[in-house]
Fold this sequence. Notes:
The chain is mainly alpha-helical. The chain has helices spanning 3-10, 18-24, 49-64, 85-95, 119-131, 142-155, 173-181, 230-240, 256-266, 300-306, 310-321, 325-331, 356-369, 372-386, 388-396, 398-405, 424-428, 450-463, 471-484, 491-496, 505-517, 525-541, and strands at residues 36-39, 68-71, 135-138, 187-190, 199-204, 208-213, 220-222, 245-249, 272-276, 280-283, 286-289. Helix 11 (310-321) packs across helix 13 (356-369), helix 14 (372-386) packs antiparallel against helix 15 (388-396) and helix 18 (450-463) packs across helix 22. Among the domains are: 5-9 and 123-276, HUPs (Rossmann fold); 370-431, no CATH class; 450-544, Arc Repressor Mutant, subunit A (Orthogonal Bundle), CATH 1.10.10.350.
Amino acid sequence: MDKKDLANLLYPNITKTIEDLEKMYPERKLNDKAMVCRFAPSPTGRMHMGNLYASFIPEVIAKQTNGVFILRIEDTDNKRAIENGIELILNDLEHYNYIINEDPIKGGAYGPYIQTERKEIYHTVAKYLVSIDRAYPCFCSEDDLNNMREEQEKRKDRIGYYGHYAKCRNLSYDEVKKHLENGDKWVLRLKSNGDFNKKIIFKDLVKGTIELPSNDIDQVLIKSDGIPPYAFAHVCDDHFMRVTIVTRDDSYISSVPYHLEIWNACGFKPPKYAHLLPLNIKDNNTIRKISKRKDPTAAVAFYHERGIPVEAIKLYFATIMNSNFEGWYLQNQDKSYRDFEFSFSKMSKSGPLFDLEKVINISKNYLSKLKAEEVYDNALTWSLEYDKEFAKILQKYKDYTIDVLNIERNVKKPRKDFSCYSEIKSCIWYMYDELFDQQLQYNFDNIKYKKEIATILKEYLENYYNENDDKDTWFNKMKQLADKLGYASDIREYKENPTLYKGNISDVANVIRVAVTTSNKSPDLYMILKLLGRDRIEKRFSIFY
């Protein structure tokens, strides 16, 4: 039987050839070190930390090599796809400032970028495989396949369509034609040349050299609906998009022999594979793969709603991607993660454990190093979506808010009061009269007597406060106030002779601090008083007189 006749019988409407596709999608004109990487999610909903991390890795590798990062949508499983799934994925990637060179919206020379729109490409390659006797139609029904599996189980044979179990492997042209004329459903299977008793050896960029049994299963290349499963689709897509590195979950490792056989059958040069361990989470006493369904902290929306900075999340990803990143970043605080040279060889051989506490700490550090103007802009953007009341206040007092956010910021060890934009309001609310509630509880710590509190506040405002004082002058006046009222202005002296004093200067300062903020913990008191000004200080003091 001439296999070209069989190919034409199965795919009569396919007129393009492999050669045509090679011309349509030529090798990319990139330098030798440039990597072409892709992220290929299914359009099943919003991203979660697991697949956001999985997309970070190929994006950062593509960018650091001046290569290409592709977003390809794998929508062949239409049972799981949702109507706006592609839009949700694009929105999340754009929110995290991923630099996507080619995607379903902006397009590109190697599209379409949605698998269900690439059917002609798959069928062209499928027709070619039939013509060279590396693929054939299979008309086995579900009952046939179930009976085959039952027989294999009884005989304790490996499960699968191979060897003498592959009943359709050697159908004649006339038999195939008769099935088609009868309208029988069929799938296209790979005609495997593998020997399960032999091994194949391949090098994985993360795991190193791996040895696995050769594939001898005649797997399905094209389903009865004309759409390919993942294996065949990814080979066609990655070849004609000229992908050089395929990053994917390590659950695919066992399939590599089959996938490599497809590459070889097609005559394509396989890309390099990097099988990534998934992002895990601790669940009581077990460790499991992070789940969008089970883990609220896995959802991207969780971080949006709290206003955790995009860059903080990416710094966390960089930390778990390469073991040597964290040490480098501590020595290069003025640089971006993009200045670091990432490597697959430095990736952990065990699955990274998602650590929300570490995300928060990284976020605190990151926010503490931003300029106050940047914090203001980002806090306003967040508030416009999640706290419109606070957004109005921020807009009304822009310059003032920037000054507030600047307190103890441009110093060697800046304050780290908040880890996300949603926490800013709770940290600085007392600086706005609209939010200041004088019915709140005041915690004066060591000084409990109302008369003493009133005396300290009145004496300070009437005889020592001057909004034009510099910080040294202000502090010296605080010491004078402490001495006058019977408090030690020198804390060491107080520790040596505590019975000689009512308390020390910190107790006096704390009364003033609590009166204007309600809390005994705040940033630099001098700057708070300077920004509030006399009239507002006097108003807040007055309720204690």
